[in-house]
Amino acid sequence: MHAYDLVALATIGVAGFVCNWLAWRLKLPAILLLLLAGISAGPSLGLLDPDALFGDVLSAIVPIAVAIILFEGSLTLRFAEIRGHGSVVRNLVTVGVVVTWVASAVLAYWVLDWDPLLAALFGAIVTVSGPTVVMPLLRAVRPSTTVSSILRWESILIDPLGAILALIVFEVIVAVSGGGTLLHIAWTVGVIVVLGFALGAAGGWLYGWVLRRRLIPDLLREYSALAAALGVFAAAEYVQAESGFLAVTVMGIWLANMRGVDIEDILSFKESLTLLLIGGLFIILAAQLELDQIIEIGPGAITIVVLLQLVAGPLRAWVSALGSKLTFREVLFVGWVFPRGIVAAAVSSLFALRLEDRGYPGAETLVPLVFCVIIGTVVIQSLFTRAVARLLRVAEPEPTGVLVVGANPFGRLLARAIRDTGRDVRVTDTHWASIRSARMDGLPVFYGSPVSSYAERNLDLAGIGTLVAVSQQPGLNELSCVRFANDFGRDHVFTTNTRRDSGHEKHSVAGSMSGRLLAYGDQTVEELVAVVSAGATVRLTELTEAFDLGAYRERHPDAILLFGVDVRGGLRFPAREETFAPAAGWTLVTLRRDNEDGSGNGAASAE
């Protein structure tokens, strides 16, 4: 391999990470920056030529990467989450697909004067959306649980189904142009569906059986999941081409709903791998575009994108929601959110290449139009979905509440102090006596481990956006931080030392996954509990220009700083990793051993 090839491959990986990081910072879907990077490196600057770099291997790399992405997404689909709304999802991936297909095909035929069969293929390709573009929108907007669950299920299920529809249309084009029969087409489609479901279900059951009996060591679980998914995909493709996408999707759904099978560690591994694959694929596929072709169909593409967004989308949602309990506003939002993603890009590239090899007229314009739809729908929905959600009143409020792990005396005191600032708070513990005491204090409680599968289904996190883990149970704080770091963000996950020597590397969790140390990590949980048991109280002190943090520390050198409330009412927890600099107008919430007001019950008092 030449030095250029090595540099190109490494640069694709680095560029994918940079685009995802910038998207996180700018709160935009990463696909926008990935497409920009690919177009810049490919047709604009001529720095990247995927065909020269990968050759014929590219036609195998793209389907395998898409299969892994679909498998990872399907692992999150649990039937319990869609209970009561299954009919809407079913309609979206059946009737809704037909509505989108027909509308898109008619638009391509009418606006661009395309060949009817090529227009039908375009319509089939753009019926897919995908979790890679829908999930970032849902995380940024945070719609209601009902709408979010429906859109998440649709985005994952619709990818293999849309790919199968595109395959059917492609087979029709090949049959018509090559003199094939409709019976052959029907047989091919039937084999794809039956084989995909059979191999996917068998693969999911077999791999779940292996996991349940712990026949695979922990260090090989993630590797084995990847190998199993690739094995099922390859087997399906070997027996019948294009059946692999359906097989890996069915396999993932089977595993996600199989009792007694824990796949959380596998899912975490797959998320990282998926980010790498998505970044690389979008850059590579975008680098293959021809700018002249995009410019040529530009005005027509804009018309198609606008009509798909404002007409076809709402029509698809309205037809799919007939007879359901969705409100009119929820139906409109479901109709609005339908960006196109990686599967549309990959499938269009595969089928366009095959049609070009057969000399089908107009095939070279298929990929540019699909990418125009991808870019257009993602840009429109990235810019306006948050405003649409607010206008339709389907967005959840900003999650300002706090989950407190540990109902010991200090945990209960901290939870009461947080509640007194007007925030939602939840207290969880596995010790029944502590939970009973928290309930007697009027605190919302959850009896059980926050990292259990039971908590996954039953712990109410509506409005919760911060974790404070102060349990006295060894290891639970670190596990809780690892569990909720992805949900809340690592900047909103706090804990404290469980023992005086926990800072030593042999007692600490690897990396920064154990959470940020509360109150600078100066006290252990046991010490904080002892301070509260000795009669310490929570004190509220408002800072001024004359009485700042320094002056407060001089007057009360032994006070333990719990958190501050800034001028906008936001909670600020002091952590060891950063400078805590409250300004005038802030309110300090501290734990003091003195008892100036004569109360020794830990109640909050103003200074």
Task: Give a quick set of tags describing it.
five-stranded mixed beta sheet; 60% helix; 24 helices; six-stranded parallel beta sheet; Na+/H+ antiporter like fold; 607 residues; alpha/beta; 8% strand; Rossmann fold
Structure description:
The protein is built from 24 helices and eleven strands. By secondary structure, it is of the alpha/beta class. It folds into two domains: 3-392, Up-down Bundle (Na+/H+ antiporter like fold), CATH 1.20.1530.20; 401-606, 3-Layer(aba) Sandwich (Rossmann fold). The strands form two sheets. It has a six-stranded parallel β-sheet, with helices on both faces. A five-stranded mixed β-sheet has the order 9-8-10-7-11, covered by helices on one side. Strand 2, helix 20 (432-440) and strand 3 form a beta-alpha-beta unit. Mean pLDDT is 82; it is low at 502-512 and 596-603.
- The CATH architecture category of the largest domain equals Up-down Bundle
Largest sheet: 6 strands, parallel
Contiguous helical run count? 24
Distance between the termini: 71 Å
Share of residues in strands: 5-15%
* Low-pLDDT runs: 502-512, 596-603
Residue-averaged pLDDT, rounded? 82
Instruction: Please tell me the total number of domains.
Output: 2
Strand order of the largest sheet: 3-2-1-4-5-6
Number of strands: 11
Percentage of helical residues? Answer: 55-70%
Q: Which structural class is indicated by helix and strand composition? A: alpha/beta
CATH topology of the largest domain: Na+/H+ antiporter like fold
* CATH top level class name of the largest domain: Mainly Alpha
> Which of globular, elongated, flat, extended, rod-shaped describes the shape?
elongated
Rg over CA atoms: 28 Å
